[in-house]
Design goal:
277 residues; alpha/beta; TIM Barrel; 10 helices; 8 strands; globular
């Protein structure tokens, strides 16, 4: 019986490894009827590393039933030094394997450096997807593009006011800069990239017109909750690729009278209605 259980587990894990990133994500969204991405942004304020680890595990355990994905932001872990990075690397394997993990790193550098970022995140940390800053050009994507089962989210329109400085600027042909990022998604498809490429679109700067100007690709949408984004911005957006709506502070730090599970459930239900899941 032990051998049969081990064989069954091996088959499940092998199948998971062969799945495309969007297949894993879509399966999780279907299983939970949720498109909530829970952001993990720990802010150490005097807590010990052990307390921080306990708190993060509690957040993951309580919110997992409502989470379509988890998104650790590496900056918060790096700020704790080497121990913080060890905390992150210990936490990732504890997240259930059927829940995609998106590592929010926003890296964008020349090829050789970018190659080592790719090795760190996909080989060492074994996350399912990463966020990348594409504004140095398409070639910086190359080290990340050919890993089966992985996903990339390119910054297209971020949720900050500074998105107006570059990302939303109009080009001479009438299009917007963020549409050039959308072109990178289309190019990756044409060239047969094994990793799947999506976009980051901040809810605070989005509307149905903007969504129509971007390819039908997986979206990671931050900005709901503490950043002031409204789900009404999604009205009229007709897309088939799976989208995720990220909430970090709204679950981790707001409404302390509510449990993390109750806050995740509340946001998941709001998102479900908005996306008609």
């Amino acid at each position: 019986m032990g051998y049969m259980r081990s064989l069954a587990l091996c088959r499940i894990l092998c199948y998971a490894l062969l799945m495309k990133y969007t297949e894993k994500l879509a399966a999780r969204i279907s299983a939970t009827h949720s498109a909530l991405c829970v952001g993990l942004d720990p802010r150490p304020e005097g807590e010990s590393l052990a307390d921080m680890a306990f708190w993060l595990r509690r957040v993951v355990q309580e919110t997992a039933p409502y989470a379509a994905a988890f998104k650790p932001n590496i900056a918060y872990f790096e700020a704790m030094g080497p121990d913080g990075l060890r905390l992150l690397m210990d936490l990732i394997p504890e997240i259930p394997r059927d829940i995609p993990v998106i590592l929010d790193v926003k890296r964008g550098d020349i090829g050789e450096t970018q190659k080592y970022y790719a090795k760190a995140y996909f080989e060492q940390m074994q996350v399912d997807a990463v966020t990348l800053n594409p504004f140095m050009g398409y070639d910086i994507l190359a080290p990340f593009l050919n890993t089966p089962g992985k996903g990339l989210y390119l910054l297209a329109v971020t949720s900050n006011g500074g998105a107006a400085d570059i990302e939303r600027q109009r080009l001479s042909d009438g299009r917007k800069v963020y549409q050039l990022v959308g072109d990178m998604v289309e190019r990756a498809r044409r060239e047969g990239a094994e990793s799947e490429v999506g976009l980051v679109v901040g809810l605070t700067n989005a509307d149905s017109r903007l969504f129509a100007e971007l390819p039908d690709a997986p979206l990671l949408i931050p900005g709901l909750g503490a950043q002031g984004g409204e789900l009404d911005a999604l009205n009229g957006a007709t897309r088939t690729a799976p989208s995720l709506i990220n909430v970090s502070r709204g679950i981790l730090y707001k409404s302390p009278e509510m449990s993390y599970a109750d806050k995740a459930k509340m946001y998941a239900e709001q998102i479900r209605r908005a996306l008609s899941l």
